[in-house]
Amino acid sequence: MHNEFSRIGLISKTGDPRVRDTLHRLITYLRGRGLEILLEADMRERIDTGDLPLLERPALAGACDLAIVVGGDGTMLNAARDLAPAGVALIGINLGRLGFMTDILPEDMTDDLDRILSGQYREESRTLLHARVLRGDQVVNASDALNDVVVHKWDIARMIELEVHIDGNLLSTQRADGLIVCTPTGSTAYALSGGGPILHPRLDAFGLVPICPHSLNNRPIVIDDAAIIDIGLHGDDTQAQVTCDGQVNFTLMPGDRVRVCRHEHQLRLIHTPGYDYFGILQRKFGWGVHS
């Protein structure tokens, strides 16, 4: 397989002392391979960047053909929303906890990158969500998500009332703490804690998972990812927000509708040749471990 990666962007998490050492080793390694290295602008706060170019995120997305993300899944989520539309492939070096997407360990980093940069890798396409907040006929906010879009109560210990339509057809009216719309990637995140199913990443599907519904009849449902989901907010004194990937928040007003659909672009996620999704599930959840 021909190696298509020559301009490498580096993105890292903040506030973790392990990042500095990992980045220094990574930069030394990439220089040794003669590759062009581009750094995210705020990396100057974490390491001595020397003569390496520093680029803001939009410029970095347009300049590199591969981004290596050093951090946890949260760092990957943040990077994916910005880089996926530009078609940049992403690799994750795991300095977080679970590491469903950042699956390369720091101690294996150079060996794994040797294989990937020599053209030995597996590439996955991951679906993203696009969410818009409609106030009447006006779009007042828009954002993207790799894991999930969540409409949820905010700053009050009281349920909210939601009306959910799929492609214009009424699915349910429910009182709950909220509703999670997740991709297959996000099915192992917040949606899983709400009792939602795990969706394999290759499925063309979304999950809808109610959060603490008042009625036990409100159950998770899996739908086609070509569907358009409208979530209407009822009640004159409702306090609610929409949150994308647990990172981007917008306060909703009574009568607002949140429209969620499949993003026009997909994320290119790079793995080592031996990547095994089911093996990751076993390790992260302790499946198959005998007590």
Structure description:
The protein has 2 domains: 7-121 and 272-285, Rossmann fold, CATH 3.40.50.10330; 128-264, Sandwich (Tumour Suppressor Smad4). Helices cover 19% and strands 40% of the residues. It is built from 6 helices and 17 strands. It has helices at residues 18-32, 57-63, 73-83, 109-117, 190-193, 277-285; strands spanning 7-12, 36-40, 54-55, 66-71, 89-94, 122-135, 138-145, 148-153, 160-166, 169-176, 178-182, 205-211, 221-224, 229-234, 240-244, 248-252, 257-271. Strands 1, 2, 3, 4, 5, 6, 7, 9, 10, 14 and 17 form an 11-stranded mixed beta sheet that branches. A hairpin with a 2-residue loop joins β6 and β7 (138-145). The mean pLDDT is 92. It is an enzyme of class 2 (transferase).
Low-confidence stretches: none
The coarse silhouette is globular
Architecture (CATH level 2) name of the largest domain = Sandwich
The average pLDDT value, as a whole number, equals 92
**Beta-strand content:** 35-45%
Structural class designation: alpha/beta
Number of H/I helices: 6
Count of domain modules: 2
CATH topology term of the largest domain = Tumour Suppressor Smad4
**Order of H and E elements:** EHEEHEHEHEEEEEEHEEEEEEH
Major β-sheet profile: 11 strands, mixed
> What do we call the CATH homologous superfamily of the largest domain?
Probable inorganic polyphosphate/atp-NAD kinase, domain 2
Radius of gyration, in Å, reads: 20 Å
Total strands: 17
Distance between the termini: 43 Å
CATH class type of the largest domain = Mainly Beta
Which range best describes the helical content: under 10%, 10-25%, 25-40%, 40-55%, 55-70% or over 70%? 10-25%
